[in-house]
TrEMBL record:
A GO cellular component annotation in the UniProt record: peroxisomal membrane
Name assigned to this protein: Fatty acyl-CoA reductase
The organism's place on the tree of life at top rank: Eukaryota
Subcellular location per the Swiss-Prot or TrEMBL entry: Peroxisome membrane
Coiled-coil region(s): none
Topology within the bilayer: Single-pass membrane protein
Enzyme class: oxidoreductase
Domain Fatty acyl-CoA reductase C-terminal: 357-448
Any GO molecular function: alcohol-forming long-chain fatty acyl-CoA reductase activity
């Protein structure tokens, strides 16, 4: 019997960010392994014209939750959506709901955040810092609370190259930042943002670091722990391999590569691709919840959920495996044949952007215009290149994260818990994982049917022929122009033609002799 699963039985759990990528997998695993838990409260806001109930219905009826329904048929009764907006004072939770949350909650998992790299500092502070502070305040009024688990990111201190499982101080106190956001206007905030974030690449990593300091300063007597995942990818094993439902991190780039939009990228091939499967992060998070509640460590423990120091894979290996997979299982209606060249300096990056990205987009848009359709490829390409420029920092640096607490926790688990809540990244086979990831992107993100693979392969063959034809035509045109203008080109041309002629004549003569 799993001790961790038993611990969560009969517990009331509060999850923020439960409609997000990580939150959904966390909920799924909790329900599947502890079907006798009392209730999971989730803080949800209405979105995209959907009510709370519609959002929850959609999640419960998704493929991700299929296995849950077998072990916990009354899952819909155990999930209690609470209308809340983390950007509002007291999260805009009704009095009755707040009362219930305060009096019943045993464990809090705080996953909600803005993960956008380009978020305005005010927005990022509100969600990643102020909301965390408010939630801690709420938690301090929960008499039955046993543990508060905060999800941060391994990149919150990405300005350092070696990162320990400790909270690093921020030059400006989070409280001062929170206060200043209340009275500074947007334009001044924009002006001071680069100074505040310093050598971090974006407001996301900066505010996640501030969020950690807030946890440290405001947790009082609470049992608190922080989990820091690196780049969270598709599921490795559970509930099934390859599940993913958003474009963040590598998923969007896998699509862009598989569809042949992205053909070269500025990346350091040997830099560590510190990916971590979402189910590994979730297993660790659940184990951390149990350990924090049961063992009540004296200080706030930080757990790195990273892969680089125990089982490294680099961007080159990852790129190769993505390509090998899309060769075997191609995506439908590719724009060009997939390719992934890594460039390492600005000049070659600009060159390949022009040749491999902008030029084909302009030609294709021209073709769309000619056929009476609306051009769209250049716009799409520019958006893609903007996205890549935001991710570039993370594919051109390597970090070392120490994982002592995570390893300690693994050793504390019973063999059964190590199996049920496996977060030992040493067991991960990267080639298999990446192949399943790409397949998952095809099935769950692009919603492509595997029956369409032969057609997709045919389409790639056609693209290859167009490519050869285009290159030959281009070569002939350039050559023709050169011959017309340059004596040297003409000489070379006549030399090549006469050489070929002589070679063929010699070959013919020798074969006649043999007969
Ligand atoms: C060979 C293989 C190599 C693989 C190589 C992998 C490298 C992978 C490095 C990851 C490194 C993360 C390391 C931090 C890990 C955390 O701790 S944070 C969690 C991760 N967070 C993120 O990834 C968020 C990044 N995304 C953003 O911040 C915003 O989407 C951006 C990039 C600023 C774009 O903002 P925007 O212009 O307002 O556009 P937005 O509405 O978000 O999306 C515009 C279009 O781009 C698409 N898009 C959005 N994100 C992406 C994406 N990642 N890729 C492609 N398209 C995207 C959208 O689908 C949308 O298309 P349409 O639906 O309009 O057709
Ligand atoms: N994905 C990754 O690569 C990594 C993620 N992390 C961390 O993991 C956690 C989860 O990330 P992930 O699941 O990927 O992110 P998602 O963007 O998928 O999910 C974010 C969640 O936060 C909720 N949320 C955002 N704003 C509000 C608001 N104002 N009120 C209520 N809820 C809100 C979203 O709700 P809604 O659905 O309504 O938008 C959603 O449920 C975050 O703390 C992130 O920093 C850390 C490292 C890497």
């Amino acid at each position: 019997m799993s001790m961790i699963a038993a611990f969560y039985s009969n517990k009331s759990i509060l999850i923020t960010g439960a409609t997000g990528f990580l939150g959904k997998v966390l909920m799924e695993k909790l329900f599947r392994t502890s079907p006798h838990l009392k209730v999971i409260y989730i803080l949800v806001r209405p979105k995209s014209g959907q009510t709370l109930q519609e959002r929850v219905f959609q999640i419960l009826n998704s493929k991700l939750f299929e296995r849950v329904k077998e072990v916990c048929p009354n899952v819909h009764e155990k999930i209690r959506p609470i209308s809340a907006d983390l950007n509002q004072r007291d999260f805009a939770i009704s009095k009755e709901d707040m009362q219930e949350l305060l009096s019943c909650t045993n464990i809090v998992f705080h996953c909600a955040a803005t993960v956008r790299f380009d978020a305005h500092l005010r927005e990022a502070v509100q969600l990643n810092v102020t909301a965390t502070q408010q939630l801690l305040l709420m938690a301090s009024e929960m008499p039955k609370l046993e543990a508060f688990i905060h999800i941060s990111t391994a990149f919150s201190n990405c300005n350092l190259s070696h990162i320990d499982e400790v909270i690093y101080p921020c030059p400006v106190e989070p409280r001062k930042i929170i206060d200043s956001m209340e009275w500074l206007d947007d334009s001044i905030i924009e002006e001071i943002t680069p100074k505040l974030i310093g050598d971090r690449p974006n407001t996301y990593t900066y505010t996640k670091a501030l969020g950690e300091v807030v946890v440290q300063q405001e947790s009082g007597n609470l049992n608190v722990a922080i989990v820091r995942p690196s780049i969270v990818g598709a599921t490795w094993q559970e509930p099934f391999p390859g599940w993913v439902d958003n474009l963040n991190g590598p998923s969007g780039l896998i699509i862009a590569t598989g569809k042949g939009f992205l053909r070269s990228i500025k990346a350091t091939p040997m830099a560590v691709a510190d990916l971590i499967p979402v189910d590994t992060v979730v297993n660790l998070t659940i184990a951390v919840g149990w350990y924090t509640a049961v063992h009540r460590p004296k200080s706030t423990l930080i757990y790195h959920s990273t892969s680089g120091n125990l089982n490294p894979c680099n961007w080159y290996e990852m790129g190769l495996q993505v390509l090998a997979t899309v060769e075997k299982i191609p995506f439908e209606s590719a724009f060009r044949r997939p390719n992934a060249d890594f460039t390492t300096n600005n000049f070659t990056t600009q060159y390949w952007n022009t040749v491999s990205h902008w030029a084909p987009a302009i030609i294709y848009d021209f073709y769309l215009r000619l056929t009476g359709r609306k051009p769209r490829m250049l716009k799409l390409m520019n958006r893609l290149l903007k996205t890549i420029s935001m991710l570039e920092y993370f594919i051109n640096h390597s970090w070392e994260w120490s994982t002592n607490n995570t390893e300690m926790l693994l050793s504390e688990l019973s063999p059964e818990d190590q199996r049920v809540f496996n977060f030992d990244v040493r067991q991960l086979n990267w080639l298999e994982y990446i192949e399943n990831y790409v397949l998952g992107v095809k099935k769950y993100l692009l919603k492509e049917d595997l029956a369409g693979i032969p057609k997709a392969k045919q389409h790639l063959k056609r693209l290859r022929n167009i490519h050869y034809l285009f290159n030959t035509a281009l070569f002939l045109i350039i050559w023709r122009l050169l011959i017309a203008r340059s004596q040297m080109a003409r000489n070379i041309w006549f030399f090549i033609v006469s050489f070929c002629y002589k070679f063929i004549s010699y070959f013919r003569a020798s074969s006649t002799l043999k007969v």
